[in-house]
Amino acid sequence: MVYFLTALCLKAKIIYKFKKCFCSNAKVFSKLRNRFVLIRAKVKKHYLRPVKIKITMESFEYIDLGQIAYADALERQTQAFEQLLAAKKQGKEGRSRLFFCEHEPVFTIGKSGKEANLLVSEALLAQRGIKFYHISRGGDITYHGPGQITGYPVFDLEHWHLGLKAYIWRLEEVVIRFLKGYGVLGMRLEGATGVWLDPYETGRARKICAIGVKSSRYVTMHGFALNINTDLDYFSLINPCGFTDKGVTSLSRELKKPLDFERCKTELLQSFGEMFP
Question: What is the mean pLDDT of residues 65-83?
Fold first, then answer.
């Protein structure tokens, strides 16, 4: 009986100490959480938007912007582009950055693009909530939207001893290697940048990844748009990349199932690490 009472008292003492410790930690956690919310609010106030993930690779810094308006992402990459250029002019080594993001529905057209490849009026786009931007990259008109990995490598190509043509080849190779992991054969089409499926089969050629870049003093901006779970109906409003005889596709359409978007970004980043070590 004495043993039983002693054990019972000891148990009660342990429970009391545990509750006291838990309550104390809960208060600390609550304070930390409130502090985190405050910090996050300040970030939202003073910057374009919080960075979702930032990882420093050996040769570049990876920044996942998550879902972001096109104008905000353009400002982010423009700032990184100008910083890298400024560092080069001063004889310093700047930091190359790779941005991944997902946009709200938007059409962009390059400096050499033709307005006729937009098949509807800008007024109709506005009614549907679709933005339209003229930008400084090469290439014609394309679409960005949910379910698409849009990537903006702001890279100093001299770090890898690359010219622009070799750089675009490596961008294509990044996507080709990524697709290979899903059993999809991505290919190049002579005279047309990007990654294609069945590019030389009449009536079957379809683009899965568009590429359009700008460079100055070997520093790049803009980049690629890889269709993962993309709603392809939007492409019916344009002649994608200026083509009227070729289609577009997505990885989910090819595999006939939706893909884990976050996993796709991780695997694509790994492919970048291989091609830009």
Answer: 97
